[in-house]
Amino acid sequence: MILLEQAKYVVRAADRVEQDVDVLIDGSRISRIGSIDRRTLPEDTIVVSCRGRAVIPGLINAHTHLYQSLLKGRRDDLPLVEWCERVTFPFVRAVLDRAWRAGDTEIGAMWSALATIEMLRGGITTFVDMDMNLDGVIRTWLELGIRGVAAMTMVDQWVPPEMMLSPEATREETLSLIETWHRVPSPDPLITVFLGPSAPFTCSPALLRWITDQAKRFDLGIQIHVSETAWEVDHSLETTGMTPLDYLASEGLLERPVTAVHAVHLTEEEIQLAADRDVVIVHNPKSNMKLGSGIAPIGAMRSAGIPVALGTDGAASNDLLDLFEEMRTAALLQKVATEDPTALGACDVFRFATEFGALACRIDAGRLDEGKLADCVVIDLGGAHLFRLTDEIVPALVYCAKTSDVETVIVNGRIVVRDRVLQTGDERTLLNEIKRVGNRYV
Predict the structure, then answer these.
(1) What is the mean pLDDT of the chain?
(2) Looking at residue 75, what is its pLDDT?
(3) 323 and 406: one domain?
(4) By residue range, what is the domain housing residue 130?
(5) Integer Cα distance of 279 and 259 in angstroms
(6) Does residue 31 sit in the same domain as residue 128?
(7) What is the count of structural domains for the chain?
(8) What whole-number distance in Å separates Cα of residue 408 and Cα of residue 22?
(9) Which residues fall within 8 angstroms of residue 158, CB to CB, at 6 or more apart?
(10) Are 118 and 103 part of one and the same domain?
(11) pLDDT digit string (tens) for 77-100?
């Protein structure tokens, strides 16, 4: 058992905060919240003092590409298509040449470890990774103790031929990923699998239909980039006669739970379609800003009742895996875009990073309630930047908190960061090893 004792605030949800209470964790679930007498607990209960601290649900990064953690600080002057051609494609080619074709598979574990360390130290307990199915990537998540959703990237057109697997290999890799990693370990899984068609314009109708069939067969979620740029919308209209989300609906993809990433250029009709089909939107404000893609109409989506989750996107277009920054950016961007300070509030974006993120990932988390998964974060409120004369803690967390305020992180009932120190690996040793292996790809 773990007792989070005498928390100043327990943020059970964006609109529900309790003060001066305890949180008891038993196994992988939250057992009780309230006043708990530690004398009634087993002697081996781990007690974490939370005086002067806030306990919050673990933050959920609903879309990223972990391999891009090795591509930080590269080019801030390119739109999406050129950015892919000049930043991500060269690295992916190198990985394909050295890893898949030459057997040098260490690099996957390295980028996975680097991203996982950054996310855990920043209070992120769950993420969706749209990535290459390279040996070591997912195993590293288990070793370091983070909850991950593996959405294998799938393409069969538009991308340079040397960067695509054959249709047969794509199907084989996908089915192998599902068989090996979906809902692992049992009975309290940290890993689940989604299907990850990259974008409507990178997938043929045949591939989209196969993905839909497999999602139905194995009860999997689907994550796909949709309408990230105006170019994509124009391309879709020229090649299919439909806007991107309409096209996906026509091919049957929306028959399954879908998280649509970016959705910057959805039409009013597509927003209603997303609402009708229970699509979860994943908003990536910093990435959209860096690539000049535009500002997603989050207010219209929320007015239509669409749940919106929050993602960092890959570190090459962000350049951080930091949901505190992402929350702040999301709120401020909507206010300035609409010239309305009420457009998006702190409680809204906190819900994006927790409750709606859990919905996007199809996990029983995102709120601190008895019976929910024990994914939670302890925030040190002692810094001058968090000093307040009121008890409005959620706005303070959204607008003032930093990743450096994260003190303790618990995932699935296991302490993975304590007193700001990673408990599941030697951080300095890992970073040195990542540098050694990563230098081969520079």
Answers:
(1) 95
(2) 84
(3) no
(4) 59-361
(5) 6
(6) no
(7) 2
(8) 15
(9) 201, 202
(10) yes
(11) 889 889 888 888 888 888 877 776
20 alpha-carbon distance from chain centroid: 30
pLDDT digits (tens, 9 = 90+) for 247-300: 999 999 999 999 999 999 999 999 999 999 999 999 999 999 999 999 999 999
Q: What residues pair up with 22 in beta bridges, in sequence order? A: 34
pLDDT, position 131: 87
- Picking from 135, 46, 441, 442, the residue whose alpha carbon sits closest to that of residue 23 is 46
Say whether both 300 and 418 belong to one domain: no
Asked if the structure places residue 368 within a domain, the reply is no
Specify the CATH number for the domain of residue 304. Answer: 3.20.20.140
Please check whether residue 142 lies inside any domain of the structure. Answer: yes
Residues 49 and 196 in one domain: no
* Tokens describing residue 384: 């001058």
pLDDT in tens, 351-372: 999 999 999 999 999 999 999 9
| Model confidence pLDDT, tens digit, residues 51-65 | 999 999 999 999 999
438 within a domain of the structure (yes/no): no
> What is the C-alpha radius of gyration for the chain, rounded to an integer number of angstroms?
21
Q: State both tokens at 49.
A: 């003092």
> Which one has a higher pLDDT value, 344 or 102?
344
Query: Tokens 């002067």 map to which residue?
Result: 52
Q: Both tokens of residue 102?
A: 């030459």
- In the predicted structure, residue 101 carries a pLDDT above the cut 70: no
pLDDT of residue 199: 97
Quote the percentage of the chain above a pLDDT of 70: 99
Residues 22 and 151 in one domain: no
Q: Identify whether 23 is part of a domain.
A: yes
The model carries a pTM of 0.96
pLDDT at 102: 66
Q: Kindly report the length of the chain.
A: 442
